[in-house]
Design brief:
single chain; 194 residues; Rossmann fold; two-stranded antiparallel ribbon; elongated
């Protein structure tokens, strides 16, 4: 009586993470163990730039600003660096624009990191107080800050991907311009307070 035994040859493969050789039979995995697969994914996700980058500050593309400035005539850049401010009046990181008064016609290209929601909220509050704030933002329509503060204002989605700060490569995210205009007395009753 004979028994059938699978005599498929075993091949050696090199693990994508630890680079050790391991026996490969039927699995299509490129890792010697689940631990290596998890470690490699963690490392890959740290390099991912789809929703973040090494810096949260993205310098405004000059042509985009010029086009909007022709329409709005900005008089205050609420979050700028001294070397890339778009208006004669501007707040730098040292000034902390979140703590400063916003009035007139404001340009805002905020840091795109964890504080972006605070900047968008401040813009919405400034609009309710009489300022016009034009915001250049990543088009993240599923986020709480977008739903709470942008959706009720005029939104202009930009075609294609912007090249920030003279970069050779386009941004890894879509962008939108959100125009927050002063709220009149009759409109104020219809808007919800945050």
């Amino acid at each position: 009586m004979s028994t059938y035994r699978n005599t498929k040859p075993v091949t050696l493969r090199r693990c994508n993470h630890c680079k050790k050789r391991y026996e490969h039979a039927r699995s299509t995995s490129r890792f010697c163990s689940a631990r290596c697969r998890v470690a490699w994914n963690r490392k890959r996700n740290q390099r991912s730039v789809h929703f973040r980058s090494d810096s949260c500050e993205w310098a405004t593309p000059q042509d985009t600003f010029d086009e909007l400035n022709r329409e709005f005539s900005f008089n205050l850049d609420v979050c700028a660096a001294s070397d890339n401010a778009k208006c004669d009046r501007f707040y730098t990181k040292a000034d902390d624009g979140l703590q400063q008064p916003w009035n007139g016609v404001c340009w805002m290209n905020p840091p795109y990191g964890r504080t972006i929601g605070q900047w968008v909220q401040k813009a919405s509050v400034a609009a309710r107080s009489g300022a016009t704030v034009v915001c250049l933002l990543p088009a993240r329509t599923d986020t709480a800050w977008w739903q709470d503060y942008c959706a009720e204002h005029e939104v202009r989605f930009l075609r294609g991907r912007l090249k920030f700060g003279g970069s050779k490569n386009s941004a890894p995210f879509p962008s939108a311009v959100v125009v927050m205009r002063p709220v009149t007395c009759c409109q104020r009753g219809r808007t919800h307070e945050h």
